[in-house]
């Protein structure tokens, strides 16, 4: 992108204008995500920077909204912060309970989506797979069909089959939504896979399952893990299906956020948002490291 | 020629099978093996995804609220409105209700009273003609006091019982399978004589909303294209160690919770929010005319453009990265200006990426629900929000299912187009 030496003035002007435009677009992409972080430390219940905050006055900042996350829903939030206070928080705090539900649902749906998705990706990447294109289209469709349609269908289906208001129902639905991501990432990893390795293992007497666990799986593991992380994030962020098929007391983090935003939006929502942004930065780092590792393993050095 | 084929047929494997047959068997076996790997997931998706959607489509053409009552606890099923339905069968559409018809309803009302299904039947008729539910609940309450002559008794209850529209609505409700919910979803209604007419101008709602969804989605697709093209180009032409760093700006929003991004936009766009404060603070705007950026179409468009931008950048980037820079250099050395070189040489090579990104963004935008629901207000909502309203607010589930069915058909056509032009295999995530 370096400017050639022979560029004339107009080209130079355009080049720097272009860079400024790109900078503004990157700002547009990232600023809305980062803006919530300082605002979540606001001492006042406002959604904007107070004068004290802009003057970097320490009294303009506080962690009261993070504290509210812990104490909201507790039996005795005012007590001394000893062992029993923390036990109370762990048992009764609304956000902690929502987080527990989200983690349980996310964990099991990820497990289901990853196991089934990896197996299917192995089949789909074989050249002899019959009806490959049509089956792939069906398996990816949960990602394409609008979530409101899926949720509507599940609402009718679960009320007939008795899966409504149960963890099982939510886990099955979230696994379905996560599966396309697992299939996409695992088939992408399998593109550069050298099939002579499995043939070599087979010719040396390994059973198919032995071949899978000691040859194939270690090689495609980075793809499997990123697929699993995608599936987990999908479940961890999903609110519409939960709203439609879950019982009233089955709160998850996104559902709690949704209620908070719709009813009375308070900066406590921003502190949850900040924690979730930190969470997604961590995940992105992990996925990026995995991708590089996978590229190195498969000999695809970054070009 | 024949000799050659004969010689090939003669080839056999070690255990004496013809080679062709043995090869065919081996190929069929490996096909089956590949299929067995996919089968568990296929069954899973068919059960947890395809079956629910088929059931939803069934709900959109089937509503037995008028004809069948199922007890919540005992699951005992009681057919409803039997006498009236028989009268409908015997008399063609458009027949004026006679004493026999009113007698049939009076008998049916007693059954409704017994199984407490007056509200259910009234609600079903209400979908076809408003104000019918209260008439039914009232009539069921007084069912036992209705005496012959029934026509006069019903007129005493409510003059509206003679309304031809009510009788048309009851006749429509009498068959559990109906296309009327799809008619309602395109602002049509069945007139008393059975013909299909438009609903009144002031109650037409759905076509307008489908149109708005289409227009806003196209606008959002266009905006994402305008914003994504320059940065995708920059990312594709920078050395990889810089572009990988800048890529974080694209991927971080992609990984961040949708609710977090929507919340951020609410914080930014509020009339007392950061953006308005900044404009007022810098003196561009007077305090009293702060811009209303949220709870309207502007809010929906801004927030959704931001949220869907990565889906445009990534396909563009993956098409731009492998473009050889020497083509543009060759054009320049042959005398093309930088604009001509871009327009004639570079841009045409990026068209597949534009198509892939635009189609993907459009598909996702058409069905968007969460962001318009939170920042859209009244006139920034899309068709998905209306489906949700009928599911959770008005409880007209069949209409919700019909609207969802129409949206689904549109999405599936676009999806098929995407598969045809781009190929699902080429869908990439970061």
UniProtKB/TrEMBL annotation, chain A:
Spans traversing the lipid bilayer: 16-41, 103-122, 134-158, 170-191, 212-233, 268-290
Highest taxon above the source species: Bacteria
Gene3D superfamilies recorded: MetI-like
Domain ABC transmembrane type-1: start-end pairs: 99-287
InterPro entries to which the protein is assigned, alphabetical: MetI-like, MetI-like_sf
Pfam families the record matches: BPD_transp_1
Any one of the GO BP annotations: transmembrane transport
Membrane topology: Multi-pass membrane protein
Similarity field: Belongs to the binding-protein-dependent transport system permease family.
Protein name per the record: ABC transporter permease
Organism: Harenicola maris
């Amino acid at each position: 992108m370096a400017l050639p030496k022979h560029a004339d003035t107009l080209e130079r002007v355009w080049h720097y204008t272009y860079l400024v435009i790109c900078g503004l677009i990157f700002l547009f992409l990232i600023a809305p995500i980062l803006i919530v972080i300082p605002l979540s430390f606001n001492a006042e219940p406002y959604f904007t920077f107070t004068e004290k905050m802009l003057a970097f006055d320490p009294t303009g900042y506080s962690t009261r909204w993070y504290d509210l996350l812990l104490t909201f829903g507790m039996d005795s939030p005012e007590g001394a912060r000893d062992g029993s206070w923390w036990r109370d928080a762990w048992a009764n705090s609304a956000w902690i309970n929502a987080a527990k539900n989200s983690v349980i649902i996310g964990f099991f749906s990820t497990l289901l989506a990853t196991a089934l998705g990896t197996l299917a990706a192995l089949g789909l990447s074989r050249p002899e797979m019959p009806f490959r294109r049509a089956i792939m289209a069906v398996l990816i469709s949960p990602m394409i069909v609008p979530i409101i349609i899926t949720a509507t269908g599940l609402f009718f289906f679960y009320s007939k089959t008795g899966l409504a208001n149960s963890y099982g129902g939510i886990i099955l639905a979230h696994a379905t939504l996560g599966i396309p991501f697992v299939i996409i990432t695992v088939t992408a990893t399998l593109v550069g896979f050298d099939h002579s390795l499995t043939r070599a293992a087979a010719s040396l007497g390994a059973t198919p399952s032995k071949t899978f666990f000691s040859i194939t799986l270690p090689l495609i593991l980075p793809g499997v893990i990123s697929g699993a992380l995608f599936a987990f994030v999908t479940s961890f962020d999903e609110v519409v299906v939960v709203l439609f098929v879950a019982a009233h007391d089955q709160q998850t983090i996104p559902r709690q956020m949704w209620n908070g935003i719709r009813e009375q939006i308070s900066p406590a929502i921003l502190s949850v948002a900040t924690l979730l942004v930190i969470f997604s930065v961590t995940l992105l780092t992990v996925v990026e490291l995995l991708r590089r590792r996978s590229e190195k393993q498969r000999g695809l050095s970054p070009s | 020629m024949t000799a050659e084929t004969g010689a090939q047929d003669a080839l056999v494997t070690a255990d004496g099978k013809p080679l062709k047959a043995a090869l065919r068997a081996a190929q069929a076996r490996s096909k089956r093996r590949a299929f067995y790997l996919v089968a568990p997931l296929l069954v899973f998706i068919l059960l947890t995804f395809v079956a629910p959607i088929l059931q939803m489509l069934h709900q959109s053409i089937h509503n037995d609220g008028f004809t069948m009552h199922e007890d919540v606890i005992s699951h005992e099923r009681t057919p409803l409105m039997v006498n009236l339905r028989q009268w409908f069968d015997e008399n063609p559409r458009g027949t004026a209700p006679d004493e026999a018809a009113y007698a049939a309803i009076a008998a049916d009302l007693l059954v409704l009273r017994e199984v407490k299904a007056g509200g259910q039947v009234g609600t079903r008729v209400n979908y076809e003609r408003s104000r019918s539910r209260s008439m039914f609940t009232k009539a069921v309450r007084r069912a036992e006091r209705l005496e012959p002559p029934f026509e006069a008794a019903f007129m005493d209850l409510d003059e509206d019982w003679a309304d031809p529209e009510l009788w048309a609505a009851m006749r429509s409700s009498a068959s559990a399978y109906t296309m009327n919910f799809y008619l309602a979803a395109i602002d049509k209604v069945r007139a008393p004589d059975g013909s299909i007419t438009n609903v009144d101008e002031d109650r037409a709602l759905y076509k307008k909303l489908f149109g708005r969804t289409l227009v806003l989605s196209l606008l959002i697709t266009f905006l994402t294209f305008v914003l994504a093209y320059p940065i995708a180009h920059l990312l594709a032409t920078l050395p990889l160690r810089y572009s990988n760093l800048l890529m974080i700006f694209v991927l971080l929003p992609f990984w961040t919770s949708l609710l977090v991004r929507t919340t951020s936009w609410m914080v930014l766009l509020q009339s007392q929010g950061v953006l308005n404060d900044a404009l007022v603070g810098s003196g561009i705007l007077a305090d009293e005319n702060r811009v209303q950026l949220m709870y309207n179409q502007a809010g929906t468009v801004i927030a959704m453009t931001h949220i869907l931008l990565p889906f445009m950048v990534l396909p563009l980037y993956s098409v731009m990265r492998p473009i050889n820079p020497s083509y543009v250099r060759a054009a320049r050395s042959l005398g093309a200006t930088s604009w001509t070189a871009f327009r004639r040489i570079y841009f045409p090579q990026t068209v597949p990426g534009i198509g892939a990104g635009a189609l993907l963004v459009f598909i996702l935008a058409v069905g968007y629900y969460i962001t318009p629901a939170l920042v859209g207000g009244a006139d920034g909502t899309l068709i998905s929000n209306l489906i949700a309203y009928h599911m959770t607010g008005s409880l007209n589930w069949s209409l919700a299912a019909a609207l969802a069915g129409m949206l689904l058909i549109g999405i599936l056509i676009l999806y098929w187009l995407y598969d045809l032009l781009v190929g699902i295999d080429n869908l990439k995530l970061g």
